[in-house]
């Protein structure tokens, strides 16, 4: 059974997943950056790049008419100096089908093999095929006609609202009110296996109730004086994830090192036997890769073992522990040099991009940048409410004490720039 803890502050959503009280997965998302799978209005002003309505520059490999505005979807977020990539092909996923607004037709998953069921589903979606294209997912099998039609109408209405936001209301941000990353993140754990989801503030609760209605029954509010994030000692666990050395229960350890070319993991034996140490490492490595959100080529140097049966057991253990991972994995197997190779799809940022080796959350710079942006817009950020909210968020954050003051700037009535050095107590 899965247990979820969702909290947020001024700049981030943070979701922790627990399995049998053990931290299993972690997701951190910036609120104001481009959201993967988010929808934005784009316009081509130069030959090589597009500019979104919020002013951000992005890359698109498809032909795009110059000077024309179109709705695009973010395929890949900005990372390591590379621009975010967008596409004109829009895909919007629901529990029962994938919606393609710019295409026409009805298609079914190959896993739905029963002839009668395929015909039934095709007849349900047939009246809507001229309005969009639908790829019917396996989850639609056996669902009531009313349920499917309600979901179709809901998606068509959402698409109409998106177009209105884009071309009539001229909204600059993400055109979708939902959080695509959150839907994708939660669905990988299976709806029926949920135990509970704790929301630490009203913002999280409202988003969950509005966009992920299925999970309302398992929603739990928390109003305690001490944050659940601190109660579960998540900062301490994250501090361990920022270290290269990971100790195993038997006394052995892993040494995880990231290079520009790949991620290397060295397995070191403890008092346990050779094969037992390898199996223990095979169970822990997927958890470490998932929590750190490591991607690209991964090279594992298991303790040398030539027995084919034991190697097969190691591979089966790795695949089983990765079974809930929604990143695409390519298995390379054991190499002739006795190392095991596999690759993992890159989605989002690595944990190390938010925390350093001393477990300092990079919120200081974000807060300063936010204040500078407000200054450039000519807004007085030190109004009574703004000052109160900023300081309260700062005090509530896990970084209270890392920096004892922060400089905030604003403009006074005479439009002269002033700076304020606020002490954090």
UniProtKB/TrEMBL annotation:
Domain of life: Bacteria
BP terms from Gene Ontology: rRNA processing
Cofactors required: Mg(2+)
Keywords assigned by UniProt, alphabetized: Hydrolase, Magnesium, Metal-binding, RNA-binding
InterPro entries per record: RNA-bd_AU-1/RNase_E/G (IPR019307), RNase_E/G (IPR004659)
Molecular function GO labels: hydrolase activity; metal ion binding; RNA binding; RNA nuclease activity
Gene Ontology CC annotations of this record: cytoplasm
Residue stretches making up the RNA-binding protein AU-1/Ribonuclease E/G domain: 95-346
PANTHER family attached to this UniProt entry: RIBONUCLEASE, RIBONUCLEASE G
Protein name in UniProt: Ribonuclease G
Species name: Fusobacterium necrophorum subsp. funduliforme
């Amino acid at each position: 059974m899965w247990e979820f803890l969702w909290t947020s502050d001024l700049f981030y959503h943070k979701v922790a997943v627990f399995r049998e009280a053990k931290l299993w997965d972690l997701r951190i998302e910036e609120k104001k950056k481009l959201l993967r799978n988010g929808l934005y209005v784009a316009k081509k002003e130069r030959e090589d790049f597009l500019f979104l309505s919020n002013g951000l520059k992005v890359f698109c490999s498809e032909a795009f008419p110059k000077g024309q505005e179109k709705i695009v979807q973010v395929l890949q977020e900005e990372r390591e100096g590379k621009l975010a990539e967008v596409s004109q092909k829009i895909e919007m996923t629901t529990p029962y089908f994938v919606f393609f607004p710019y295409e026409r037709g009805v298609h079914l998953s190959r896993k739905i093999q029963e002839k009668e069921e395929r015909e039934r589903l095709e007849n349900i979606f047939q009246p809507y095929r001229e309005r969009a294209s639908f790829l019917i997912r396996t989850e639609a099998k056996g669902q009531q006609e009313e349920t499917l039609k309600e979901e179709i109408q809901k998606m068509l209405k959402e698409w109409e609202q998106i177009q209105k936001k884009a071309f009539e209301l001229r909204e600059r941000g993400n055109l979708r009110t939902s959080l695509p990353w959150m839907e994708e993140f939660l669905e990988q754990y299976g709806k029926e296996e949920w135990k509970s989801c704790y929301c630490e503030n009203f913002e999280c609760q409202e988003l969950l109730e509005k966009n992920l209605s299925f999970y309302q029954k398992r929603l739990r509010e928390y109003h305690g004086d001490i944050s659940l994030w601190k109660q579960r000692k998540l900062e301490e666990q994250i501090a361990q994830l920022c270290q290269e050395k990971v100790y195993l229960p038997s006394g052995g350890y892993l040494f995880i090192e990231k290079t520009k070319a790949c991620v290397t993991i060295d397995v070191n034996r403890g008092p346990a036997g050779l094969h037992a140490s390898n199996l223990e490492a095979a169970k822990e490595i997927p958890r470490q890769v998932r929590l750190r959100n490591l991607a690209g080529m991964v090279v594992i140097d298991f303790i040398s073992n030539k027995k084919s049966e034991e190697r097969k057991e190691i591979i089966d253990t790795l695949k089983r522990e990765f079974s809930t991972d929604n990143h695409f994995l390519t298995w390379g197997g054991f190499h002739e040099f006795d190392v095991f190779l596999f690759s993992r799809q890159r989605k989002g940022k690595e944990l190390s991009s938010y925390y350093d080796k001393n477990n300092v959350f990079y919120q200081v710079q974000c807060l300063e940048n936010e204040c500078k942006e407000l200054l450039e817009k000519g807004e007085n950020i030190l109004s009574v409410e703004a000052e109160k909210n900023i300081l309260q968020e700062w005090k509530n954050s896990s970084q209270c004490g890392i920096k004892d003051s922060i400089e905030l700037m604003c403009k006074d009535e005479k439009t002269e720039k002033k700076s304020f050095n606020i002490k954090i107590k």
